[in-house]
Amino acid sequence: xxxxxxxxxxxxxxxxxxxxxxxxxxxxxxxxxxxxxxxxxxxxxxxxxxxxxxxxxxxxxxxxxxxxxxxxxxxxxxxxxxxxxxxxxxxxxxxxxxxxxxxxxxxxxxxxxxxxxxxxxxxxxxxxxxxxxxxxxxxxxxxxxxxxxxxxxxxxxxxxxxxxxxxxxxxxxxxxxxxxxxxxxxxxxxxxxxxxxxxxxxxxxxxxxxxxxxxxxxxxxxxxxxxxxxxxxxxxxxxxxxxxxxxxxxxxxxxxxxxxxxxxxxxxxxxxxxxxxxxxxxxxxxxxxxxxxxxxxxxxxxxxxxxxxxxxxxxxxxxxxxxxxxxxxxxxxxxxxx
Length: 338
Description:
Helix 3 packs antiparallel against helix 6 (75-98), helix 6 crosses helix 7 and helix 8 (129-147) runs antiparallel to helix 11. The chain starts with a helix and ends with a strand. By secondary structure, the protein is of the alpha+beta class. It has helices spanning 2-5, 11-16, 18-38, 50-56, 65-72, 75-98, 102-120, 129-147, 154-160, 169-174, 184-207, 270-274, and strands at 222-231, 234-243, 250-258, 264-268, 281-283, 290-291, 296-298, 303-309, 320-325, 330-334.
């Protein structure tokens, strides 16, 4: 055991993490495989476009919300970002599987996992799916950086062939082999403690998972109503779907105007919403509010301005607007007519 700890066999750690390297490698390469080979999800005009899923991250992202909002409001930039992201995942995954430049690829894993964690760590209907993927990816990236790759890797093959490149100092940091770092033990402890701290912080921030109450923003849809404006015989308002499952929309079956006694004075019903004019909906992001077969559909992360006809109804500041979801959920906001 002392022989191994002293580093006389630097490839042993890489051998021990072989299954981790293969599984993590496939995890990232399979994203490219699913997204481009099995089914092309990089076409903006088609259903399943990966940019829409990226839009789902927006409402509750941590720290990177401005970046996501910029991309979802600039479709061309979003498209090329998704293409670049997919290519990076493919390279990182494939190189890890074959053990080529393992430590450099582990840094890629760390970065990709951090993006997943900060962007979508709040998502997950039955489990804390995206948060778990994120924190385990960050930790796996760190472990693979420390271990490099041992047997069954191209890095090890190049070292056995004693190619000149493997004698370079940079190869031990970007490929595999012994880590040439002084006082490695306290540095490993410090980084590991920071990763544990990140795990506890994000678990608490996204889900209340360290001390209660627990919360899951992916279970029930939530719609924010704002910017209510009256223009003559028309009323416009902004809706923003900020919570609920990312694979399932909020389905509005009624929009109502309520007087000061909560009596309905104007109602747009389910049939009318299913046929709602698209020119009365001004979408802000890639995920779009649109009429569906039986309702008005609000995908997660969608933000839009909706305009309705008042039909001669006179309103005051004591009136309110109510949206009703097919699940029975309701969202209301006081009117502020101008």
